Amino acid sequence: MKTWTIRAMLALVTATALSACGEDEVLVSAVAADASTDGTGNTGDGLGGTDAQTDDSTPPVDATSDDATDVQDDGTTPPDAVADDTKPSDDTKPSDDTKPSDDTKPGDDTAVQTDGSGDGQVAQDIETPDVLTCTLEACDDKNVCTKDTCDLVAGCVHTPVDGTCDDGSACTDGDACKDGKCEAGAAKACDDKNGCTADTCDAAAGCVNTALDATPCDDGDACTSGDECKAGTCTAGKAADCDDKNTCTTDSCDKAAGCAHLPLSATACDDGDGCTQNDTCSEGKCGGGGALTCDDKNPCTDDTCDVKDGCKFTNNTAPCTDGDACNGADTCAEGKCTAGTTLVVCDDKNPCTDDKCDPAGGNCAFAPNTAACDDGSVCTAGDQCAAEKCQPGAAVNCDDKNPCTADSCDKLVGCVHAKVGGACDDGNACTSGDQCQGGACQPGAAVVCDDKNPCTADSCDPKTGCASAPQAGPCDDGSACTTGDTCAGGVCGPGKPASCDDGNACTADSCDKKAGCLHANTTAPCSDGNACTGKDVCSGGFCQGTAL
User: For the chain, what is the radius of gyration of the CA atoms?
Assistant: First the structure.
């Protein structure tokens, strides 16, 4: 232990006051001992030697001993009696279990020793640990759950505090300090209220809501079923089937409440009993009407009623009557009354009567008719009954359209065609003078088809006779005043006008359709082309002048 003087103690008090005022750094220097001595004459060397005693009554205690303690005059351990091995080194902070308690800090009343007289007078020298050099920045333990201070005796002090903190996990909320440590709060609620996400928590990223696919969900609509997640969204499924199979309710669906069934009354329905009829709804239930009457009015069926199938009509083989006395003893077969085998036959062999049996009494009756019949002659046709007899129809037409036969009719043989001679028509317009021979018309001479027109091609058609078709080629239009006449459309068209100019100035040129070109003499003045004549005049078709 080093010995401090009163001045060192004052320096300690001053440094403590400065630290409390928020100074960033407090530097405390150990005040050198002023080489004062106690009553024993020992001098503090500042090197950690044994402390000088205040009197001779208490022997010094070895400061290096494990159980060494300083004993005050009053028998207690002085607050600054700390073993050397618990002093913090220059490069390490003191641990929490080595921090001095509040009642051992310098400045406590117990830190003042008395001298040997025990009169309470403050001694010249006070024993205390080495003075430390520290800063608040160096004492920051990066823990929000401690208050970091610098104690000039103990060094850095980290006092636990209450308050909020962050435990480093994004998956907790409300982390709080406890006993100097940050304790995790409640687990973070990552439920996004979406049934189509998988809600998890990652310590670093926090809540993770992963979209789901093909997972059943509820879209909040009670009118759909089989809803399924798609890309994190609940997709509506099929429409809910609200059919309660009850015809006495009106079925509907409400998105919130789901299917609703409104009861009906006074509405036709089916109670499922095939033996009731006129069933009617009453307050949502189907009630049966009156009993169903199963009678098909058929004696050949046994009539019953089945609750499930309703009326049933089963064929029987009972005797019956079909109301016809003409067909013997009747019997039921396949649901019908079938006639017997002994039938009444009514036939008078007259085609001009209708023969029948009276169904009521089984008697025959023969009623006249007007049916077609045969009077026995092949020379009549369309014979018809009248007054129960066959009357002959119209005479048969025996005309064979052959002019070379004589037509007649025999009642037994029918039509007869006798051969005759004479003129006839063989049906060919290209022949003439046809004659009957052997009952047939033989063709005469061929017809000559010539229309004397060079502009048509003449021919003969057996059905229509002579025909003239237009043709092309040269022709003569009958005029001597044209040349190069040509056929067109079956007519001879005129060609170019004929040239009647004879090159004679003493003739008047013209054309006659029959005679052709005409050249009439004139007496007109002219020129004979001779310069030795004068007064040239036409005469006799020539130009003649008088000699000069």
Answer: 79
Q: Is 482 helix (H, G, I), strand (E, B) or coil?
A: strand
Residue 18 phi/psi, 5° resolution? -65, -40
SS3 22: coil
DSSP E strands in 411-532: the ranges are 414-419, 422-423, 431-432, 435-437, 440-442, 445-446, 456-461, 465-470, 482-483, 486-488, 491-493, 496-497, 507-512, 516-521
Instruction: Indicate the DSSP class of residue 284.
Output: T
pLDDT band, residue 133 (cuts 50/70/90):
low
Instruction: Tell me which residue has tokens 């006639």.
Output: 339
Share the mean pLDDT of the chain: 78
Pairing state of beta strands 389-391 and 384-386? antiparallel
Nearest by Cα to 493 from 474, 469, 508, 480: 474
Please, which residues have CB within 8 angstroms of residue 240's CB and are 6 or more apart in sequence?
A: 222, 223, 224, 225, 253, 258, 259
Beta bridge partners of 364: 357
Q: DSSP 3-state assignment of 138?
A: coil
CA 364, 368, 370, 371 dihedral sign is: positive
Beta bridge partners of 446: 431
Residue range 144-159, pLDDT digits in tens = 999 999 988 888 999 9
Question: pTM surpassing 0.70?
Answer: no
Q: Is the confidence at residue 118, as pLDDT, over 70?
A: no
Residue 146 pLDDT = 95
The DSSP annotation for 410-441 comes to: ETTTEEEEEE--EE---S-TTEES-EEETTEE
